[in-house]
Task: structure prediction
Amino acid sequence: MKAKILYVWSSLQSSFWFVPLQLILLSIIAATGFVYLDNVLDFQPSGIYRYFLIGSVDSARSILSTIAGAMIGVAGTVFSITLVALTLASSQFGPRLLQNFMHDRINQIVLGSYIATFTYCLLVLSSVKSTTEFLFLPRISVTFAMFLAIVNIFLLVIFIHHISVNIQADQVISKVNDILNSNFSKLFPMEKEEESPSISDEQISALIEKAKFKKVVAIKESGYLQTVSRRRLISLARDVNGFIELKKRAGNYLVDGQDVFEVYSEKEIDEDFEENIRNALILGRKRTSSQDAEFAIRQMVEVAARALSPGVNDPYTAITCIDMLTDSICYLTRIELPTGQWFDEEGKLRLITKMISFDGVVGVAFNQIRQYGQNSPAVMIRLMDAMVTIFTLAKKKRHKEIVLEHANMVLMAGKEHFGERNDF
Result:
């Protein structure tokens, strides 16, 4: 349940409409509050304030109408600029990077601010009354509307600067790298609170033979596996005094009817239990970075692959991607990747999950770049430099062997496709 709540909250925060909706609701509350304050205080400006604050109903209506019209017009302009930026991002960097622009908080705040100011002005305008029986002039409310208009002018300047900076290739790659490093730090922290226990394959085989019941559970929907609630699965495995093996990991695509779980238990498994373990998984139409460590890597590889396409031919963008990927993979050489074995408080094995490996990450990061860039000496030379850097920082023998294997592939590709021997 906690995993689903966090997933829903994360989806709301990253949606394009959530922040604007919040700002619109705040504008409604602010309009109601300031109108109430005007009704209670009956503020009368004096001194220098008389030159800046409104003095008649007609001026109040004129100011509110002007601000409301300007805000909705600029909101349309902001929306148009956002669409142009999304179109450029889709064509230049790939459609899968669109969600990074959609999740951008400044874009959401700027659009929401203009619509919220428009809503605020409409509500305050409706409260202005000038009849023979009743006269109401909300001076404080109109003054706050003028303040919001000035703030929105600054927001427009900030928004234009922000868009012009964020559509640059280096900035896009840097943001994707920040997401990748953040995911690595969250999923694979360098400092663990305690040493993770693990058992050998022979011990796991003995537990499987010892189990009284074995049940294969299939998924009943299709989609990308986005989130796995490990705590829920561990709790369910404890209830049947056994352990669960999850054959897929976050980022894999699951097909309706595909076998995903194997349950080994001392108690018989019923349909309710099967439904409960299915509910521990969250599937969606797209991959996300919440638990999928390779997702941001694939985004960066897509940028590099597009840069190396004949229609673009931009090796420097690809080189920047290689540098960022090198930084992230060097982090993996300094940590212990999880074994995929999860235990309860009593030290009993309750869950086995499929985890990423160092070999798999290096392959995902560099294989496609090597294949697309094999005709570009600059890209291949930087790939070899990346292998040297990772090899130098790697402390485990297995990691060094993997890097050497990829370095040999880069060398063989260079020998086969380079026309100039000195490029070696």
